[in-house]
Design a protein that fits this description.
Layout: H1 4-14, H2 20-29, E1 34-35, H3 36-43, H4 47-59, E2 63-68, E3 71-76, H5 80-92
Antiparallel strand pairs: 1-3, 2-3
């Protein structure tokens, strides 16, 4: 049986996927770590909008950040997030292939 605490923790983590831009960010971070500028170029979102979502995802424990010089690079905390995205892909867009 899954405990109430585990359900709450899972629900909090799934909030990271509950927004189109955050899901897009996770998809881009499946292959490599990226800085805000790279993510802006790939998503078309403004850097300020991305920063807000990246902060939320970091607070939810989905991504980590590392400062290198003037840039902050983001990566997935756990490769199991890639598995979640691949499961969603199988359910919602089975003809589209996302690199794992």
């Amino acid at each position: 049986m899954i405990s109430e605490e585990q359900i709450k923790h899972a629900s909090e983590g799934l909030k990271a996927l509950a927004h189109e831009l955050r899901l897009t960010i996770i998809c881009h971070l499946m292959d490599t770590e990226l800085c805000v500028g790279d993510l802006a170029a790939k998503t078309g979102a403004s850097q300020s909008n991305l920063s807000q979502h990246l902060t939320k995802m970091k607070n939810l424990g989905v991504i980590a950040s590392e400062k290198r010089g003037q840039h902050v690079y983001y990566s997935l905390v756990d490769s199991q997030w890639s598995d979640v995205v691949l499961a969603l892909q199988a359910m919602y867009c089975p003809k589209v292939k996302i690199k794992a």
